[in-house]
Amino acid sequence: MRITQVENIDSEAVSKHGLPGFVFAEQTLYEQEKDNVFAKGWASIGCAQQLKKPGDIMPVRIAGVSLIAIRNKDGGIGVFHNVCRHKSAPLVDGPCNKRTLVCPYHKWSFKLDGELMGAPRFYGSENKPISAEDKADKGLIPVRFAIWWDIIFVNVSGDAQPFEEFIKPLDELLAEYPHQDMRHVSSTDYSGEVNWKLAVDNFLDGYHVPFVHSQACSIESALGQDDLFLSDDIVGLRLPHGASSKPAKTAKQLPHWNGLAEEKRGTQQWFGIFPNTLFFVDPCWVQTIVVKPTSVAKTDETLTIYVTSDEAASDEFVEERTRLSDVLNEVNQQDIELLDKLQHSRTSSVADQGHLVQAWDQVGMAFHKMWLSKMQAK
Question: Where is the Rieske domain (predicted)?
Fold first, then answer.
């Protein structure tokens, strides 16, 4: 059985060759991942600034369940299971803005904070409103969540370590960046015919960037990358002078982070936060990619771009923000096209004879070992 093969995958072999090809194509493993990887960990579902107005609702599927993130009337965020408390009909099919949520099945209605408002004819022929006592245990089921750098993380199982502990190594590394000043530029959805792990691995592969994305990075710049191993769940890469030595993305310079030290004004850093959060910090912008597997060989992504201040979000820099968004989306589209092809070649048995390169592949290999550790855990 395939599961026996996963249990017997040797960590040293992963260090040399990466994960074997079958783990990117096996349906039974994908079903296991829903519990072992996505439900038990801190998985991202989207970004808070995608929910711009009270009543904005964003549905998403993760860990095999359907969730909704809601901007409530007070401006806060809530995350709930996307199921009515009567017979579990889905409340929302797509992004929308609502004052209340009404189940399409039996018209039970819910406030934006999840509280049950009403249930028509709850008492049958006795036509009276549902009582406060009967409402009390019938609100939407909340999901444990946290918001960090505008990214909404959820823990579906409810028993992961506290989010503050989970994210602490990265939080400390980026402490000097005033991330509360970030302003949303764009969010773009993608879909690829590829296993989600290959999408994450690609993001953590600095080797391919100057060859596939020559508009974004020179080989001289890529040669200066530093590997970052922050925890058992967070890895990344740093280019100390990546921003200053790459081709210009905009006609004039977008403003830097307020208060950023001079020596950091050329530094780019990007991270994989296990399992599905891809995060890039530039001196002038931020990029987040939320990776959302929909089947063993299909993955949706949402790429969200930010600038670093109100000044950068002003009318003065409209053209620069447009150019930035165009370039970053062009880069992601190039990756999607490559990954669709890689899904076929990387899942063959011949791929198990590949060789990782010491100088370039240590961060991606660490991600492979994270996955293996979660899948082999008892």
Answer: 44-154
Q: Which amino acid is at 291?
A: V
**Number of Cα atoms under 13 Å in the Cβ half of residue 251:** 8
Give, to the nearest 10 degrees, the angle between helix 196-203 and helix 318-346: 120
pLDDT in tens for each of the 378 residues of the chain? 344 588 889 899 999 999 999 999 999 999 999 999 999 999 999 999 999 999 999 999 998 899 999 999 999 999 999 999 999 999 999 999 999 999 999 999 999 999 999 999 999 999 999 999 999 999 999 999 999 999 999 999 999 999 999 999 999 999 999 999 999 999 999 999 999 999 999 999 988 887 888 777 777 777 888 999 999 999 999 998 876 544 454 468 899 999 999 988 999 999 999 999 999 999 999 999 999 999 999 999 999 999 999 999 999 999 999 999 999 999 999 999 999 999 999 998 898 899 999 989 999 999 999 999 999 987
User: Rounded to two decimals, what is the model's pTM?
Assistant: 0.94
Give me 348's structure tokens: 């063959």
- Contact, 204 vs 363, CB < 8 A? yes
Q: Are 196 and 299 in contact (CB under 8 A)?
A: yes
Distance of alpha carbon 328 from alpha carbon 78, whole angstroms:
29
Give dist(CA 278, CA 339) in Å, integer: 16
Burial label, 126 (beta-carbon count in 10 A; 0-12, 13-18, 19+): exposed
In SS3 terms, 18-45 reads as CCCHHHHCCHHHHHHHHHHHHHCCCEEE
Q: Which of 47, 42, 58 minimizes the C-alpha distance to 287?
A: 47
Domains of the chain, earliest start first:
2-25+176-376 (3.90.380.10), 44-147 (2.102.10.10)
Task: List, in sequence order, every beta strand (DSSP E) within 6-160.
Answer: 43-47, 56-62, 65-71, 77-81, 96-97, 101-102, 109-110, 116-118, 144-148, 151-155
Pairwise CA distance, residues 353 & 355, whole Å: 7
CB 202 within 8 A of CB 338: yes
How many angstroms separate the CA atoms of 34 and 41, rounded? 10
